[in-house]
């Protein structure tokens, strides 16, 4: 009987918690991407390039490029280019990127070009924050949109002033890496959590031996590893595939005030409360009245007098009871019963938190 009860308890614990791999919960400190940026020219456009009278930097860039190719443009020449556009090129240098490896680039217009569709990016050096060139980009741009215009009317689908070149840049310089040189590696949690950091530490110690891992804080778990890149790769491959039972997360409600979206996780609960939600609208109308003299030669003057009318209207506002809710589905039904719009729901959620009947942290982004 005791074994049966113990098995039922363990089964209940495993159903409440959710097992996830360490690789999905953490990242290796120092193994990261680096941003690259460059300035270049796109040619071959079908009359949709920059208007050079308004973007003089496009003409200046083209003159510099032509001079490097041995072509001298006569001084004072006013080039009216329609098939050339100045662009900014961005890319991410991957971790452990090697010389000759191809990476994707994003090309974005920085002038007044109407479209980059069908254009070709000329050789563009991509630099890092240290102003060193790490890659060279060139190739045909793929624009995920379409547009047409005629007779003053135009139709456009998606964005035409930005595109992507798959494998459009080649790494020319490698970044120095310290991986494999030390005897410790730090795992960084995606979200700070003391409980999760300790659970990851205990899981690694059970698999690799006591003292293999130490939780430094709510974000970092330090692992003792043998010196040598190949040994550390093998050990990390084993550790990242270990399963961790993720405990209950913090109850959170995320409010995006710009888009009016409200997102809550499954840990949000409600206590019983009463809510009255109403709409208060104030309308101000102002009319200008012209007052003229009664007689043409009476000596009076024509004046303009404003007439203002203010209308205040309040709708709704009835007090409604909200029952206690122990799970997310009950919370959704309780909030929907109020009949509030997403914008009104934001105010209701904030008021519930202040009243202490909302068991969740509210974050506004």
Automatic annotation (TrEMBL):
Entry's family note: Belongs to the FlgI family.
Main location: other
Signal peptide segment: 1-19
Organism field: Siccibacter turicensis
Subcellular location: Bacterial flagellum basal body
Main function: Assembles around the rod to form the L-ring and probably protects the motor/basal body from shearing forces during rotation.
Gene Ontology CC, one term: outer membrane-bounded periplasmic space
GO biological process: bacterial-type flagellum-dependent cell motility
HAMAP family given in the database record: FlgI
Record's keyword terms, sorted: Bacterial flagellum, Cell projection, Cilium, Flagellum, Signal
Subunit description: The basal body constitutes a major portion of the flagellar organelle and consists of four rings (L,P,S, and M) mounted on a central rod.
GO MF annotation terms: structural molecule activity
Protein's name in the database: Flagellar P-ring protein
Keyword Metal-binding: no
């Amino acid at each position: 009987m005791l074994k049966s009860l113990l098995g039922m308890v363990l089964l209940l614990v495993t159903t409440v918690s959710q097992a996830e791999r360490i690789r999905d919960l953490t990242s290796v400190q120092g193994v990261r991407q680096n941003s690259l940026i460059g300035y270049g020219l796109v040619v071959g456009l079908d009359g949709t390039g920059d208007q050079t009278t308004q973007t003089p930097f496009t003409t200046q860039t083209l003159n510099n490029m032509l001079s490097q190719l041995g072509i001298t443009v006569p001084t004072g020449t006013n080039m009216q280019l329609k098939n050339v556009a100045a662009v900014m090129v961005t890319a991410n240098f991957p971790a452990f990127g090697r010389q000759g490896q191809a990476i994707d680039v994003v090309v974005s217009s920085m002038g007044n070009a109407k479209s980059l569709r069908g254009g070709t990016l000329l050789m563009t050096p991509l630099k890092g924050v240290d102003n060193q060139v790490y890659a060279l980009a060139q190739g045909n741009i793929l624009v995920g949109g379409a547009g047409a215009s005629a007779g003053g009317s135009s139709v456009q689908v998606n964005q035409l002033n930005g595109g992507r070149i798959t494998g459009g840049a080649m790494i020319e310089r490698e970044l120095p890496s310290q991986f494999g040189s030390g005897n410790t590696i730090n795992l960084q949690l995606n979200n700070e959590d003391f409980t999760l950091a300790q659970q990851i530490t205990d899981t690694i110690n059970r698999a690799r031996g006591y003292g293999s891992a130490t939780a430094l804080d709510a974000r970092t778990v330090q692992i003792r590893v043998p010196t040598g890149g190949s040994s550390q790769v093998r050990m990390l491959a084993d550790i990242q595939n270990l399963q961790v039972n993720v405990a209950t997360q913090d109850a959170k409600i995320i409010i995006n005030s710009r888009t009016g979206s409200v997102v809550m996780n499954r840990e949000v609960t409600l206590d019983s409360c009463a809510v009255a939600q109403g709409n208060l609208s104030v309308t101000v109308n102002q009319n200008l009245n012209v007052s003229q003299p009664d007689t043409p030669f009476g000596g009076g003057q024509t004046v303009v007098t404003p007439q203002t009318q203010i209308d205040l209207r309040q709708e709704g506002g009835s007090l409604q009871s909200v029952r206690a809710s122990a799970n997310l589905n009950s919370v959704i039904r309780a909030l929907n019963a109020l009949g509030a719009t997403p914008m009104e729901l934001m105010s209701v959620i904030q008021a519930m938190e202040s009243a202490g009947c909302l068991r969740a942290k509210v974050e506004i982004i």
